[in-house]
Write a structure and sequence with these properties.
This protein has 192 residues and is an alpha+beta fold. It has one domain. Helix content is 37%, strand content 24%. The protein is built from three helices and ten strands. The strands form three sheets. Strands 1, 2, 3, 4, 7 and 10 form a six-stranded antiparallel β-sheet that branches. The chain is elongated and about 90 Å long.
Length: 192
Amino acid sequence: MERFAPIVLERRRGCRAREAGFTLVEVVMALGIVAFGIIAVFGLLPAGLGIFRESIEATVSSQILQQILVEAQETDFDQLIKDHTGNPISAGTTGKKAIRYFDDQGREQASATGAIYHVNTRIQPATDSPGKAPFTNPDLATVTVQAAKNPGGRALAYETDFTLSNLWSGTFEGEAGRVVPIFTASTMVSRQ
């Protein structure tokens, strides 16, 4: 009887090993659950990347706008109220500075070639003073800056409304369908 004892022990070890493993059905079920989770995560990636891209655009645009508004506040008032040709802008009208161009990092470019952001600056000299009894103040100008993401460099259309003159409408000249994202900021600059 002692001769058969080792064989019985070996069979018991083999049975235990089979009981401790996973069956094919269990493995397939686990892989199915993991695959379902991964597919759900991959489905969220495009939305997350789109939001990330929009936040980068907003960040770069706000940096560009802030830079130009600070430059306007540091510019001599008499130079500020001149248009892009160097002529003074008369009271009651709006003028604009030359279009400026920036790359995707917010660095200024010399020309539109390779530029991602196009920046329009509008100046309104002799602005109404804020308050309960507004009056036209010749020593106060409103500076409005628009940054448009326009990597193709196509010509942007201007607003037709007189009160919004010299501001971009967000569409391309001659095209009605496609709208360009435009970020706008404004400040008042005084003579002193």
